[in-house]
């Protein structure tokens, strides 16, 4: 009687291990970028209240002159021309609105790049939300609905200040001419 071979040969097993190794080598960096993008997206969610404050002030007054500090007056990191500034979460160290006479309602989200935050950003750690009406930055007399544009380093949208978060780590709506 002939014995029927059972199981896999060593070469077949080595081929399977090599394929799994190649897939892991490709998938691991993509997954790491994905997790950083998810952490960066948290800042966009946290900035919703700041967006509401700017939109409400503009719709009520047609300017940002009456936009006042909502929380954490004098919070560390607030610049001199920043009226509305507050601290937030584990990954976001600061959200501030440029308002008053010098400001145009841009919201700057600053990410924590320490070991407990998002160290992969390494200094390129800001996203800027730019309010526009009809594709033009807010200006006295502008009327209409406010549209928000997220600007990272890879953004090609015209008006406003660009953030420094690279396109690799920016959410999709912060890249290109969105």
From TrEMBL:
Keywords associated with the record: Fimbrium, Membrane, Methylation, Transmembrane, Transmembrane helix
Entry-linked PROSITE patterns: PROKAR_NTER_METHYL
InterPro entries named among the record's database cross-references: N_methyl_site, Pilin, Pilin-like
Keyword Protein biosynthesis belongs to the record: no
TM spans (from-to): 7-31
Keyword match Membrane: yes
Gene3D superfamilies according to UniProt: Glycoprotein, Type 4 Pilin
Similarity comment text for this entry: Belongs to the N-Me-Phe pilin family.
Entry protein name: Pilin
Lineage: Bacteria, Pseudomonadati, Pseudomonadota, Betaproteobacteria, Rhodocyclales
